[in-house]
């Protein structure tokens, strides 16, 4: 098509649109931010983010506590464990959990417990030697998975939390087995209120930094509530692909 033909063609289109023909020099480039999400939560206080996180996670079937002291935590957690008649717990080997003195509380309640990759109190193991099992895991690794599977409650610490989607993020690594957050019927995850950020774009930035440092975790698990699945008839089933219950405990101190 020559220039005259193209101009005539474009003139006809402009006439159909009932407007004058626009020339290339008259079209202003679009003005938009390449990262508009950066300003989504400007002006929001940390309390705003905490409230949004709690509201969103609860709307997705999660249970959220806000706890203001060690004493309150001990009282509420003790009552909750007793009410659920918990007999066995698996938890991460994490110094942040140790600061909460969960071991003494569990022992007071006569609850058997095991810390991932470090035994504390519980049933005797079979003493298998290191070797390969049929599923490719070492006997040692299989032992810890079995312990997590037998536990009624798995206890972890969040590596991040995001208000917009009510998402808790946990990284797997030494002492922090993924099975603890996946296999027990209930997942109990602790986090400080200061860990709650606006949206998942904050997580992607952090993961990029970890990648550049060569420090990416073995897995990154995004948890937005208890496991919930639906079949072709829209029947909701809890606990098929993970815990039936999620309790996030937001600690109001650091």
UniProtKB/TrEMBL annotation:
Q: Which InterPro entries is this protein grouped with? A: FTHF_cligase-like_sf, LUD_dom, NagB/RpiA_transferase-like
| Location of region: Disordered | 120-142
Signal peptide coordinates: none
Q: Which residues form the LUD domain?
A: 52-250
Per the UniProt record, one Pfam family is LUD_dom
| PANTHER family in UniProt | LACTATE UTILIZATION PROTEIN C (PTHR43682)
This chain belongs to the protein called LUD domain-containing protein
Q: What organism, scientifically named, is this protein from?
A: Bacillus thermozeamaize
Tell me the lineage of the source organism: Bacteria, Bacillati, Bacillota, Bacilli, Bacillales
């Amino acid at each position: 098509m020559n220039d005259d033909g193209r101009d005539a063609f474009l003139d006809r289109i402009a006439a159909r649109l009932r407007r004058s023909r626009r020339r290339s020099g008259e079209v202003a480039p679009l003005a938009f931010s390449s990262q508009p999400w950066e300003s989504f939560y400007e002006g929001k206080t940390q309390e705003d983010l905490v409230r949004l996180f709690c509201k969103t996670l609860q709307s997705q079937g999660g249970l959220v506590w806000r706890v203001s002291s060690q004493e309150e935590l001990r009282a509420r957690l003790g009552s909750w464990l007793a009410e659920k008649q918990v007999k066995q717990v698996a938890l991460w080997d994490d110094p942040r959990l140790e600061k909460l003195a969960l071991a003494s509380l569990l022992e007071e309640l006569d609850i058997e417990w095991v810390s991932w990759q470090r035994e504390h109190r519980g049933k005797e193991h079979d003493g298998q030697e290191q070797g390969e099992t049929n599923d490719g895991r070492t006997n040692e690794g299989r032992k810890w998975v079995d312990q997590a599977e037998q536990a009624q409650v798995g206890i972890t610490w969040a590596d991040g939390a995001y208000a917009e989607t009510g998402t808790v993020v946990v990284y797997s690594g030494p002492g922090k087995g993924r099975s603890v957050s996946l296999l027990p019927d209930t997942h109990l995850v602790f986090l400080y209120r200061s860990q709650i950020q606006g949206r998942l774009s904050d997580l992607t930035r952090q993961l990029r930094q970890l990648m550049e440092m060569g420090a990416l975790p073995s897995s990154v698990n995004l948890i937005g509530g208890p496991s919930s699945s639906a079949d072709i008839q829209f029947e909701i089933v809890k606990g098929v692909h993970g815990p039936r219950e999620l309790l996030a405990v937001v600690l109001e101190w650091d």
